[in-house]
Write a structure and sequence with these properties.
Length: about 400
């Protein structure tokens, strides 16, 4: 009977169909005589390995014939970055479920040739999840902003290295753009990022007091220095279709540019209603502009024309100095805020209700979280400014 690697749930449809699971519910694995601790660790490793060669070798050594992914497995969150992309790219897919009859079930066959693993590549050297400090490809120096495109790839503002790095969803480096300087396409302390529906990348080039646009191939398109008086420090960006929202930190304001080039601005430096003090993050969702007003230790919510809707305090930001916090939000009314002081992500509702905090343990432990970007399907990318790597949180509710 074929052996499947899949979710551990005791009523999994594969188990009910009479197939054998490599690792089922721990009690049943123990009663079957398995070394539960060792097998559970191997089970977790097989969903987290980044090397196609090592993955297939171990699948074969473990006597596994098929690997099945479904939404139950994808949503469990036990693996910080589930490696389904490796299975999709390097194993034969023998079943798919595009109409969602079985939780988007996908089944992959492990190669039967015992030497097949040797022909597969090792893990790429440049991996955003491993990262590390440095200027080599795939390494970072205080990353700040992150943004996803419609294909699921991730852009990272590698702030200290004055460049943007582009990665696949599995963490593989796809390319870099920008270099230190003041000319077109050059960067000085890039921070916030945003990607349009057609793949154009906007970069908050904070040190050069401008924003720049690049096409999907990484070629410079244009730059914008702001309204007539110019930007003081464009620190973060958000998009609503083709409308661009720029958070100008030094001037305590939001600047909105429409597709036809017309602009409006709102806010001023201070702590009064609607004012901003050292803001560091901006998001747009459902007609609302949400700003991490970190100097005032609060979140400020405007409508898309700048009218103040509400503000609410973030007590956790009162610890330590003003953080380099970012904000992400979804249409359900949930807001995620990065909190460097205790290496966590704070979860709020748009009405100011605190829901709790996310502080995963190893291997996904956060280390100076800054930039945030929601991944399609319900996960959150986090830039670790101190840890110089990217984390992916799959459990978004405390």
């Amino acid at each position: 009977t074929a052996v499947f690697l899949t979710d551990i749930h005791v009523v999994h449809r594969i188990l009910l169909a009479g197939r054998r699971l490599y690792f089922g519910w721990p009690y049943y694995a123990w009663s079957a005589g398995y070394a539960v601790g060792a097998r559970e660790q191997e089970y977790r490793d097989l969903f987290a390995l980044r090397s196609p060669r090592e993955l297939v070798r171990r699948l074969q050594d473990d006597g596994i014939d098929y690997v099945a992914f479904d939404d139950g497995l994808r949503d469990r969150g036990f693996a910080q970055r589930l490696n389904e992309e490796l299975y999709r790219d390097h194993l034969e897919q023998v079943f798919s479920d595009p109409d969602n009859h079985y939780g988007h079930l996908a089944i992959y066959r492990v190669p039967r040739d015992p030497g097949a693993w040797a022909a597969l590549p090792e893990a790429p050297a440049a991996d955003m999840y491993s990262g590390g400090r440095g200027s080599e490809p795939g390494r970072f120096d205080g990353p700040r902003g992150v943004a996803t495109d419609r294909t699921g790839t991730l852009y990272v503002a590698d702030t200290g290295n004055d460049r943007i790095q582009h990665f696949s969803s599995s963490g593989n480096l796809l390319g870099t753009l920008g270099e230190a300087g003041t000319g077109p396409g050059q960067l000085d302390r890039p921070t916030g990022l945003a990607v349009t529906a057609d793949g154009q990348l906007w970069v908050a080039d904070a040190g050069n007091r401008r924003v720049q646009a690049f096409d999907p191939a990484g070629r410079f398109v244009r730059e914008w220095g702001g309204p007539d008086e110019g930007f003081g420090e464009p620190i973060d960006l958000a998009l609503d279709g083709e409308r661009l929202f720029v958070l100008d930190a030094v001037n305590g304001r939001v600047v909105r540019q429409a597709e036809d080039g017309t602009t409006i601005a709102w806010g001023s430096l201070g702590s009064g209603d609607g004012q901003l003090l050292k803001p560091t993050g901006i998001a747009f969702v459902s007609g609302r502009v949400i700003v991490a007003d970190t100097g005032n230790r609060r979140v400020v919510v405007y409508d898309d024309a700048g009218a103040l809707i509400r503000s609410f305090p973030v007590a956790e930001w009162a610890v330590g100095g003003p953080p380099s916090a970012d904000v992400a939000a979804d249409s359900s009314g949930t807001i995620w805020l990065s909190n460097e002081a205790d290496d966590s992500i704070l979860v709020y509702r748009t009405d100011g209700t605190s829901v709790g905090r996310l502080a995963p343990g190893d291997p996904g432990r956060l280390d100076g979280p800054t930039g945030l970007a929601l991944k399609r399907g319900g996960a959150l990318y986090v830039a670790n400014g101190r840890g110089d790597r990217i984390s992916l949180l799959t459990q978004l509710n405390p």
